[in-house]
Amino acid sequence: MAVADSYATCSITRRRPRADARVLLPFAVFAIAYLVAPRFAEDKVLTSLIYIGIYVLLGLGLNLLMGYAGQISLGHAAFFGIGAYVSAILTLQPVQEPIIPGISAGIGLMAGAAALISLTRVSGWKLAASVVALLALSLLCHALGAGLVFTLMIVAVGMALMGLPLRIGVWKPAASGVIDIAAAAICGRFLARVLANGGASPWTGIVVGIIVTGLIAYLIGALVLRLKGHYLAMATLGFGVIIKIVFEKWVAVTGGSSDGIYGIPSIPIPHAMQHFFSLFRGRAVSPKEAYYYLVWLFVFAALVLAVNTVRSRVGRAFRAVHGSEQAAESLGVDTERYKVQVFVVSAALASIAGSLYAHNVGVGFIHPSEFSFDVSVMLVVIVVLGGLASVWGALFGAAAIQLLKDWILALGKRDITVLGLAIKGLDPIVFGTILVVVMMVLPQGLVRGLTDLAAGAIRGARSAAGRKGRQEQ
Amino acid sequence: MDQLGQIPQLVVSGITSGCIYAIVAIGFSIIYGGTQVINFAQGEFVMVGAMVAAVLLTKFSVVIAFPVAVAAGCVVGALLALCVLVPLKRASVVSLIILTVGASILLRGLAQLFWGEEAKHVPYFTGINGAEDRTFHVLGAVISAQQVWVVGVTILLVAATHLFFRYTLVGRAMRACSSNPTGAKLVGISVQKMIVLSFVMAAGLGAIAGVTVSPYFYAKCNMGTALGLKGFCAAVLGGLGSFGGCIVAGILLGIAEALIGLVMPSMSDYKDAVAFVILLIVLLVKPEGILARKKVVA
Predict the structure, then answer these.
(1) Which of B268, B259, B265 is nearest to B10 (CA)?
(2) In chain A, what are the domain boundaries?
(3) Span A125-141, pLDDT tens digits
(4) pLDDT tens digits for A59-116?
(5) Cα nearest neighbour of A417 on chain B
(6) How many of the other CB atoms lie within 10 Å of CB of B75?
(7) CA distances to A199, A322, A417 from A91, in Å
(8) Is residue B135 included in any domain, yes or no?
(9) B159 found inside a domain
(10) A-B Cβ pairs (cutoff 8 Å, strict)
(11) Residue B83 with chain A: CB contacts under 8 Å
């Protein structure tokens, strides 16, 4: 039997393991709980469940990055915020005209730079030089008032010529120039109209949010993921702080820190979907219940994605990168590509969570302070509580955090004083204590650490019993 | 012409904040040298010093408030060192980062709980009547006595730290630990004690900086995060471990922040982002240059 097993593991022709009961069972339990929960949940609980769902999306993404690929991000609230702001702005307020061409050009430039990085693998000063060239060429064409086709040609030829002295080829820089101008032109056509009119569908907002967040994550990831450990942590932290400052100070677009954005509409849920949900609810669903179903539908999809990714070749590559980048590279794993990929996926999940957060039923309000460094830390707490490298742990971590937050809020409302101090705003103390204690005692994370401890204790008890038995003999 | 006239004044205020960044950067370097840990709670040491001083200075004179605040900072540093030492050997870098981040927000939360959220005004050390400071006019700039204090204390601290690491037995033992812990252990140096000492020193330096700067910046419970980040920028720009580099980078950073509003008026809102943009650019253009100077010998 043992021989057959090891033969099966060794055989290279062995097929991918099919989803077995151990994988499917949690999903079945989850699906049932998901569908029947609103029957038993009162309004307050439903609100908490919606937030838990949003945190699960964030926690899952961050756990793929931190737990599996071993890359830390202390700026994940930025992606959460970008998703929220992009879809809120698109659905709501018309943006003032003069900024729109700049936004289109900026997105075009980001697309061009992303293409440049992925096509030529260029980095350092060469990348800086080519991006400056892209910018200069497009500005030149703009100043000349050239049409789209002419601009495309000039930028493509210019980038091709630029590629020669930089020794990065001719065709690839030219292609990235074309992508730059094309993306800018598409944004100029489509996005500019949406921005100028305002009031797009939230579904559009979600999709555009994912694209914008993904682009930014790709660029930031390609730059900072070469760093390791502390440097990466600080670079992502710095990125998060910059984005938060932008939310606060770019008043013309984001509303700034005095007002924030309010009156954001909720997501319209198709009738067929509502009908489907009401089958499980037993009666027509209220807007809040419908929103709960929607959020957790995204969670369900994200869980499937995460479980499949972790069990696939890609997931094994992530873990190899986590274990040792050099070893992974020597086995042919393109570590840089995988790291950027997981960064983008986790940013995209954060962006979806952000859009869902912004369009939450009955709230419809976002403010820069909701995407601060403290939120990034809270996301790390979710991952740590649920256990690094544990997909289902994210559910536990998110639920624990939301319950803690509810509890702290309730405590703050009761005006309790201990030793003459008003007990209010305890979040940082509680979260900080959790992080310090868990990392000191169980660096694996709570769930994993506890199960390891339990397994160790059982093993210890068994071997002790075995010894005792032998002694008695 | 009017704008040019502002330059000396801006440079002076830039140097003042730059000095604080430099001290925080040196704190990063000391702890990194001892443990290979970047202590994300570094900025909170400054906050602890400033807040304790702010509370004490309302009742006592500087002579009492200063040492007590610094002692408080050192105690916090020692406690943090004990927390870090428990998992130091078996934990990954990510775990240690999370630990110090947790300690940082814990300290901030406690300060908020005990001392409230609002900014505290701290009387000047050598002010005329506490509310107003003495000023000097030099080369078209108005320099307050507190700024002289900040710069003077920074110079003194840096000189003292340098001499400590170069000439005293303990300082050399700490250097030995940072360059080769096993070797240091073999010749009878207690590595653990040196690690605790490095945290206490970094915390003490931070607290001194906090006390000195508090009359100038106000004391706030959330001042630590930004200071810690900017100090880290200075530490990376200067090459972790070189004290001279930390000072130059810190002061340059301070001046750059002060001048950005003058050079690009539209960007003055984004003054706080300057340090991070510089950091990201350096990481983008020359990441290997920064990573290559990992070796930290004070």
Answers:
(1) B259
(2) 41-93+198-426
(3) 777 777 888 888 878 87
(4) 999 988 888 888 888 889 999 999 999 988 888 877 777 777 778 888 888 888 888 7
(5) B113
(6) 15
(7) 4, 40, 44
(8) yes
(9) yes
(10) 147
(11) 436, 440
State the smallest CA–CA distance between residue A170 and chain B in angstroms. Answer: 22
Q: How far apart are CA A431 and CA B71, in angstroms?
A: 26
* Dist. CA B78–CA B41, nearest whole Å: 12
Distance from CA of A434 to the nearest CA of B (A): 8
CB contact under 8 A, A239 and B101: no
Residue B297 domain flag: no
Calpha distance B255→B268 (Å, rounded) = 13
Assigned domain for B298 exists: no
Model-level pTM? 0.83
Domain count within chain B: 1
Q: Which two tokens stand for residue A131?
A: 């991006």
Over the stretch A304-316, which tens digit does the pLDDT of each residue have?
888 888 888 878 8
Inter-chain CB proximity B105 and A435 less than 8 Å: yes
What is the per-residue pLDDT across B85-95, written as a single tens digit (0 to 9) for each? 777 777 777 77
At B171, list the tokens. Answer: 């300082």
Contacts of A436 in chain B (CB under 8 A): 83, 99, 102-103, 106
Domain of B50: which CATH number?
A: 1.10.3470
Q: Which domain holds residue B183?
A: 2-292
CA distance B248 to chain A (A): 20
Residues in chain A with CB shorter than 8 Å from the CB of B282 are: none
Q: Best residue in A234, A250, A380, A405 to probe B by mutation, most B CBs within 10 Å?
A: A234
